[in-house]
Design a protein that fits this description.
Layout: H1 2-10, E1 18-21, E2 28-36, E3 42-52, E4 55-68, E5 74-83, E6 88-91, H2 102-121, H3 124-137
Antiparallel strand pairs: 1-2, 2-3, 3-4, 4-5, 5-6
């Protein structure tokens, strides 16, 4: 989870993060603090958005819990996935923290690794650094 975690750190960590990264020609990438996940860990949403008829649509969005590891690192673990068109919504813990759908979690983890590689290849890390610099250069920032 190197690309997403690096972007989160560029924006000063997950708490209160709202990072909107424009990286043409790709869809805007948004990473937001969404509070606490189903197992009690800090959680973020990672999504690409497009607009359709004035509505923002996820393509895709994934919810990630940030789980601290004994070695001091953090692991980003998926707990929901959604796409606006066609409408798809999936939960890893549909009935609370003890109801883990391991097959879905494995599929989402594999998807996440592929998406992360795509984000890296598409230059989103560089775009995130640029977004932070541009934000700091604005008056009142």
């Amino acid at each position: 989870m190197k690309t997403i975690s690096a972007i989160v750190l560029i924006f000063d960590g997950p708490q209160n993060i709202h990072a909107a990264i424009v990286n043409e020609p790709y869809m805007r990438l948004v990473i937001e603090d969404i509070g606490i996940g189903p197992r009690g860990f800090r959680a973020v949403s990672v999504a690409h958005y497009f607009e359709l008829n004035g509505d923002l649509c996820q393509d895709p969005e994934i919810g990630l819990e940030i789980v601290s590891q004994p070695d001091g690192t953090s692991r980003y673990e998926p707990f929901f996935f959604q796409v606006a068109i066609p409408p798809i919504y999936q939960e890893v813990y549909p009935d609370g923290p003890n109801s883990e759908n391991r097959v879905l979690k494995q599929k989402l983890t594999e998807f996440l690794h592929t998406w992360e590689q795509n984000l890296a290849d598409q230059g989103f890390l560089k775009a995130a650094r640029k977004a932070v610099v541009n934000r700091a250069d604005r008056p009142g920032a």
